[in-house]
Write a structure and sequence with these properties.
Helix content: 25-40%
Structural class: alpha+beta
Strand order of the largest sheet: 2-3-1-6
Shape: globular
Strand content: 5-15%
Largest sheet: 4 strands, antiparallel
Order of helices and strands: HHEHEEHEEEHHHHH
Length: about 280
């Protein structure tokens, strides 16, 4: 039983834990979701919810005053924001990835994911962001369960073939220019960036597996949308209410190696086995 639960954890077969929150750190059902949102108490990744505000957010290609705005101006506005966030948060430690979502759905729009090299760095940044504002708006920050962005990113978007457009529930990562990328990251992210159509994985089987899992997640979302809303009242435990900023107090703790979905499932399986052995 423990092996089965560990094997389906965070997948569409898991009827307890929300697979979208597990993979993406955001769920369109929010607190109404019928499945659990297990918010981590420590993570190398921070989510700054709905932080980036496009200048043409209300109407594409038109600014808040109703005047046309060039694509070049929109990109400059984004890169100014990106550099601003990077320079501020890099004070707390090395940033390995900084992703800004170009999605349009409420639970994804303007989301900023900051992945630090160490969990302690993320915890320090989270503490510093508490109570702060950006452009007159409060910063809503919390730890995110996302550590493997390959699982969270929409590959069809990278190939300019996502049929769901801005309302896709996987990340549509907004890209920065080559000069800014080189200035901020140097050569550290060369293999992750470039043309959107370029594959980021050397293993075709891994790409196929990720695509298959994403297709299943999309089918699960379509097929069970009404049931999820109808059953939302049966949810209990974690996942509701406001964010909780729980932190470890051991200053000597260092981040383990980055884990993917398979590693986390194996670790959960080990925990279940140990629990069963203790209960004997």
């Amino acid at each position: 039983m423990a092996e089965h639960l560990a094997s389906i954890f965070g997948t569409e077969k898991d009827r307890v834990n929300c697979p979208f929150y597990f993979k993406i750190g955001a769920c369109r059902h929010g607190d109404r979701c019928s499945r659990l949102h297990n918010r981590p108490t420590i993570s190398p990744t921070l989510l700054l919810a709905n932080m980036y505000q496009r200048p043409d957010m209300i109407t594409p290609g038109v600014d808040a005053q109703g005047l046309p705005i060039e694509a070049r101006k929109i990109q400059e506005h984004f890169e100014d924001f990106y550099e601003d966030i990077y320079e501020e948060l890099s004070k707390f430690g090395e940033i390995e990835r900084l992703n800004v979502c170009d999605n349009l759905a409420d639970h994804m729009i303007g989301n900023v994911y900051v992945h630090f090299k160490e969990e302690d760095h993320a915890a320090a940044a989270l503490k510093a962001l508490s109570g702060r504002f950006y452009s007159g708006r409060p910063i809503i920050a919390d730890f995110s369960p996302v550590t493997d962005f390959r699982e969270a990113t929409c590959r069809q978007y990278e190939e300019d073939s996502c049929a769901r457009g801005g309302y896709c529930n996987f990340m549509h990562v907004k890209m920065i220019g080559r000069e800014l990328r080189k200035k901020l990251f140097g050569r550290r992210q060369t293999r992750f960036w470039g043309r959107r159509s370029r594959s980021r994985s050397a293993s075709p089987s891994n790409n196929h597996r990720r695509d298959r899992d994403r297709d299943r997640d999309r089918e699960r979302e379509k097929g069970h949308e009404r049931r999820d809303y109808r059953d939302s009242g049966r949810r209990g435990g974690v996942g509701g209410g406001s964010y909780r900023h729980e932190r470890r107090h051991d200053g000597s703790h260092r981040s383990p190696a980055r884990e993917g979905s398979e590693e986390r499932r194996a670790r959960i399986e080990q925990w279940n086995r140990e629990r069963e052995e203790k209960g004997k």
